[in-house]
Amino acid sequence: MRPAGHWSFLDAGWRWGSVVADLALAESGGPTVIERLQRDRFRRLVTHARAHSPFYAERYRDIPPRLPHLADLPPVRKRDLMARFDDWSTDREVTRERVEAFAREPRWIGRPFLDRYALFSSSGTTGVPGLFLHDADALAVYDALGTARMGALAPLWDWRTPPGGHRFALVAATGGHFAGVTMWERLRALHPWFGRHAIVVPVTDSLDAIARSLEAFRPTVLASYATVLRALAERKLEGRLACDPHTVWHGGEWMAPEARATIVEAFGARVAGDYGASEFLNIAFECEHGALHVNADWAILEPVDAAGRPVPAGQPSDSVLLTNLANRVQPLIRYELGDSVTVVPGACACGRTFPRIRVDGRRDEILRFAGAGQREIAIPPLALATAVEEGSGSHRFQAIQCGPRRMRLVVEGGTRDSRSAAKAALLRYLRDQGLEGITIVLEAGPVAANPVSGKFRQVYREG
To answer: What is the reported pTM?
Structure first.
């Protein structure tokens, strides 16, 4: 496999500009134009997948060649795509062996695979690891959606811009080709100014270490997961964090109303976010009224019940099917994403006509342990899960706090050695947070799925 290449600023800028103009057309045209764009892109995507993906050619062989209705096509699942990885791709140079070799190189995070694709890896809250490639056109769509529709980018033009420009800090998982850090590093490579004014802080660092990094850098824009932001906001309210961003971005986790209130109180900052996944970065954007609007010109979301039937507006789904209309190298057509989604009826006060949704995504909880001198130490759930995954290779597990200094660690599958490695990784992470002597009871067995979304809660408190 040849080494990773470099992104082209001119190519990315040209593609971005053409998509931004297209987004303006959709926004001004309303539902009729959005539906037309969605329909035309769906037709081209299905035609391309049938012609160039052996997986889809086989899956659709009994479906008439005319453009099918969406509901005529069978759903696909991550497990199916990972099992048929080479046949799924529309580029015959893409093989699982090559992609996995690339993914094992942390020095290539944010660099293009085969000089043309971004790789996003995902452990997945269904317990099935995923490897997703995105082509240049899809990346341009994600960039443009983030720029034109995600309200969190407002600080770029905010009157409070400091003389030296904004400083951007991302607190995220850094030990793999995860979507957040990959796109961040890609932007740093494409834009030298951003590269000089942006940092990444590993989410697996202790909160003390994260706080020190933020205080030294003094970001004006802070991005992370909802539970990490809430834990930092609590430190700020306690007077233990000298950091004053005026804009806070969140993603990757559901933002509870009480978490948003704490973050706003602590930082006095504008809080904005989006709903996305490794399969499509910008599924929905948050407007100034806090509503999530689906980017329906580039993504199709189908809330479904446990039997795969459509769910009416106002009713939470058991799962949701995603069709990514932007990416051609690994087509995702009626892909089961797993989240519980509710379509919100009626118009939004912001005036936009894109569909509104509520999402029941990851709802893991901040754990709180008694540290030295009975000082409470908060542990963000995604940071803990990342530490166990990176330290042991285990992906299907649950870490459950069952006392002020006691945990259960349930690991599904694997060997005795792999389960012990997961426990050792968890103990190391807790020690790094200043927590010595935490009792961890290791159990082998199936993890419990969330009764609503079908995903399992990975980190939570018992009782």
So the answer is: 0.82
